[in-house]
Each structure stands twice: as structure tokens, then as C-alpha cells.
Design a protein that fits this description.
Helix 5 packs antiparallel against helix 6 and helix 12 crosses helix 14. The protein is about 40% helix and about 20% strand. It has 15 helices and 16 strands. The chain has about 475 residues and is α+β, with helices and mostly antiparallel strands. The chain starts with a strand and ends with a helix.
């Protein structure tokens, strides 16, 4: 029996505001516990929340970037549940009247475009943090009240790879529009996975299992892979899937049961009486839409159509905002050859940065350096082989490529007279090889090219060497 996974993701994105969602306390990662708190986020009696205008702007911005319909009216609700780090005994969220609905993200899986629909995007506040030390548990309310967006997909994802690609694309969009750093390690992007299996070809949903709080893209894929295998084994043996919440163990690569979830929680939502409904005009929505920067899909299309990059190269470059920015700065410096600039970034720079564990924004090789290397090759001042030596030296020292070429005497020899003289000397030294070449062994051309390059310490223009050698040997 073959099964098809049906996957939906609930993603919480922390907005990059300076202050919290309903008070003026600072949002600061790694601050001393309970230092960024006030009567509002500590839920002291008599304190009243006031919506952060910047948080609303960011949420509208994200909704538009995700192709959602932004509603002119949305309402904050109280989501009631009890937990030590939830000081009010409820979370301010949105329920039946969210900020935005009906969006989508397009991803590419095995070269095919798949559209993942977004059910809703709503605003809410974060809870605090419980810290466990030995027999004691402590509550840090620094995070309480931090503004979040919850982005809920439709169950349109059908593979572990698709789930990872959706998350990566979502993070990329958030970074492009500047509403969140979306760093999973800092808890700025958190993901819950809903997964069920059904018989291939069926349109009936199976029993859903939720996997909570997975903290990396790789682990999301691994958790789903394991859960598909676990559920398939149970179903093939005639068993039933238990509706439950599970956690993923990174060390074992397995999920384990956290709690049963036979029925949905009754959060007893009701409109928050302390917050008025959010009414936004179409003019406000349009002004944010007009100010949106170029998004990854638009950028990729432009790279292919205008800069004549391959789809693969364009996809790699736009997959990271800083990478795309680096590429564009290099092209701005030397617009004559964007394809070669892309190749140098993808094939040389990214590999070296990965090897050294350096982010592209901290690269010792700057966009202007890549542009200059490509320009030096195009002008015939250095060969591609010499260019790699220059690149290595620039990476080590941060010097300009042209200075490295000058200091190390690496400029390519393109003087015909000089190269002809060297060719003649080599031909005079190897009469037997010349005879064999003239007798039909054309592969010996490579031998002569090698001898010329050796004599010039790799500095002779290879194209010119090939042309002149062919003329002399055929003459």
C-alpha cells in the first residue's frame, strides 16, 4: 500500500520591531532575565495594552509579500490557557477576524513549481520563557509581549523536501522585506508541523499528528521523514494513528509523544475588550504595497531575462538577500559580464566562504574585487588559471586584485612577438615532436601549449598561444 503525506505548517515569525507589541519595552535577544518588562507585559492590574504601529505595518507588509488579502477590519482576541510564563492567563492573538487570508508561496521541487496556499496570517504576542535548573523552574518575561506573526499554510505540502523549501522561501521573503531576521537559532522563526498520511489517490485526510517547536530547516525535513515512516508502518500493520502532539529528538532523529490530543483545545476565544478593532484604509494598504522592495521571484526573473543568467544561477543568488546584494554591487561595478560575475560568486566565493565558516556580508573578498577579477580576465590581463591565484590572495589579504597582479608580476603576456619567439625556441628544441605533429598526431598541440605556458610561468595568453602555435606548426 502506497501512502501520500499531507503536510501543513504553522510558522511563528518574530517581527524586528524595537519594542513589544502592546507596550514600549525593548525587544532584545540575550538580555538579563526580567530586565525588559513593565506593568503591561507583566500583566499587573490596571495596565492596558496599546498596539505597536510598526508591528501592524510589518504584518501588513508580510501579508502583501505573501500574496494575501489584507482585511480592512481585524480584531484582537484573548486566547485563554494557563502556563507559568503566560502572565495574564491568556495570550492576545487574533481568531475569527485575522489580519490577512488567502495567500500563497511558489516553491520549486525537482524543477517543478508547486503553489503552497496560505490559509491566514494573524498578529499575536509571544509568551515568556521558562528556564529549568535542577529542581527549580524560573520565569523570564523579557520575551512576553514580543510581536509575532503566525502564518498558517493549507495542507498543500506533500514531501519533507517541499516543507523545507517552503520554510526557506518564507524566511527569505521575511528578510527581503526587512520585517524579521527570521533566525531559527534565536527563536525568531519557529515551526509546528501537522502531518497525516492517506492512500495515494485518495482525497480523504488521515489522522493528523502535530510535531512542535522544530528549530532548524534540516530538522524539519528529518522529523517529517521519520514521521512518514512511523505512520506508514502502523497503517501497513492495520493499526490506527493516534491524534497527538509529538516532539523531535535531534540526537536520535526520531519523534516521541508529548501529549495526546484527542480533541482540539478549547481556548475560549473572545474579543479583547481592552483593544479596539483594527481598521486600516485601502490607501494605507496600497502605500505599503507600493513601497515593497523587489521580492525573490521578481529578482530571479529579472536576472534570467535581463542579465541572461541561467535559472539555476539566478535561483542560487536570490536564495539569500545578502548574496543577491553582493552580486548586484559587483554587476554595478562591472556591468559588461554579469554571467561571469555570477560564476565567480557561486563557484569560487561561496565554496570558500562555506569552507571558512564566513557569511557573505563578512567576506574579505568584496563585490568590487570580484568585478575587477572578471574585468582583468575579459581584458586579457590575466588568464582564468591565474585569476584563481589572484582570488586566493585577495581572500587572504583583502588587497585589490589589480595590486596583487602588479605585486606578484602575474600580468598575462599577450605580446605576439614575445610569444612567437618562445614558440620558436620550443619548436627548435623538440624536432621529433614537430615531425609527429605534422605526420598527423594533432594531440601534440597540447604538449607544445604546455611547454609555452611552462616557459612563461603560466602567464602567456592561452588563446593567443593556441592560435600562434597552430599557425607555426601547420606552416
Amino acid at each position: 500500500m502506497e501512502f501520500e503525506p499531507v503536510i501543513g505548517l504553522e510558522v511563528h515569525v518574530q517581527m524586528a520591531t524595537k519594542t513589544k507589541c502592546f507596550c514600549s519595552c525593548k525587544v532584545e535577544y540575550g538580555a538579563e532575565p526580567n530586565t525588559n518588562v513593565c506593568p503591561v507585559c507583566m500583566a499587573l492590574p490596571g495596565s492596558l495594552p496599546v498596539l505597536n504601529k510598526k508591528a501592524l505595518e510589518y504584518a501588513v507588509k508580510a501579508s502583501l509579500a505573501l500574496n494575501c488579502e489584507v482585511h480592512n477590519l481585524s480584531v484582537f482576541a484573548r486566547k485563554n490557557y494557563f502556563y507559568p510564563d503566560l502572565p495574564k492567563g491568556y495570550q492576545i492573538s487574533q481568531y475569527d477576524k485575522p489580519l490577512a487570508t488567502n495567500g500563497y508561496i511558489d516553491i520549486k521541487v525537482d524543477g517543478k513549481t508547486e503553489r503552497i496556499r496560505i490559509h491566514r496570517l494573524h498578529m499575536e504576542e509571544d509568551a515568556g520563557k521558562t528556564i529549568h535548573q535542577g529542581q527549580y523552574s524560573y520565569v523570564d518575561l523579557n520575551r512576553a509581549g514580543t510581536p509575532l506573526m503566525e502564518i498558517v499554510s493549507e495542507p498543500d505540502i506533500h514531501s519533507p523536501v517541499g516543507a523545507r523549501l517552503y520554510l526557506e522561501k518564507l524566511r527569505n521573503i521575511m528578510r527581503y522585506i526587512g520585517v524579521s531576521d527570521a533566525d531559527m537559532e534565536k527563536g525568531q522563526l519557529r515551526c509546528d508541523v501537522n502531518i497525516s498520511l492517506r492512500e495515494k489517490g485518495s482525497d480523504k485526510f488521515g489522522t493528523k499528528v502535530e510535531i512542535k517547536n522544530i528549530n532548524s530547516f534540516r530538522f524539519v525535513q528529518k522529523a517529517i521523514e521519520y514521521e512518514i515512516e512511523r505512520q506508514a508502518k502502523i497503517l501497513r500493520k492495520g493499526g490506527e494513528i493516534v491524534q497527538e502532539t509529538r516532539l523531535f529528538d535531534e540526537k536520535t532523529g526520531k519523534t516521541f509523544s508529548m501529549r495526546s490530543k484527542e480533541e482540539a483545545h478549547d481556548y475560549r476565544y473572545f474579543p479583547d475588550p481592552d483593544l479596539i478593532p483594527v481598521r486600516i484604509t485601502q490607501e494605507y494598504i496600497n502605500s505599503i504595497k507600493e513601497a515593497l522592495p523587489e521580492l525573490p521571484d521578481e529578482k530571479e526573473k529579472r536576472y534570467v531575462e535581463q542579465l541572461k543568467l541561467t535559472e539555476y544561477d539566478a535561483e542560487v543568488l536570490v536564495a539569500d538577500k545578502d548574496r543577491a546584494l553582493f552580486f548586484e554591487k559587483a554587476v554595478e561595478t562591472y556591468p559588461q559580464n554579469p554571467k561571469s560575475i555570477a560564476n565567480w560568486i557561486i563557484n569560487e566565493l561561496l565554496g570558500k566562504l562555506n569552507e571558512e565558516g564566513i557569511q557573505i556580508q563578512d567576506s574579505p573578498v568584496k563585490p568590487e574585487h570580484i568585478a575587477q577579477i572578471v574585468q582583468l580576465i575579459d581584458k586579457g590581463d590575466i588568464s582564468s588559471k591565474i585569476a584563481k591565484q589572484v582570488f586566493e590572495e585577495v581572500f587572504k589579504t583583502g588587497k585589490e586584485p589589480i595590486k596583487v597582479v602588479e605585486e606578484k608580476g602575474l600580468k598575462q603576456v599577450s605580446d605576439e612577438g614575445q610569444i612567437k619567439q618562445i614558440i620558436q625556441e620550443i619548436i627548435d628544441k623538440h624536432p621529433e615532436e614537430v615531425e609527429k605533429y605534422k605526420a598527423g598526431n594533432k594531440k601534440l598541440l597540447g604538449f607544445f601549449v604546455g611547454q609555452v605556458m611552462k616557459a612563461t610561468k603560466g602567464k602567456a595568453n592561452p588563446k593567443l598561444v593556441n592560435q600562434l602555435l597552430s599557425k607555426v606548426l601547420e606552416g
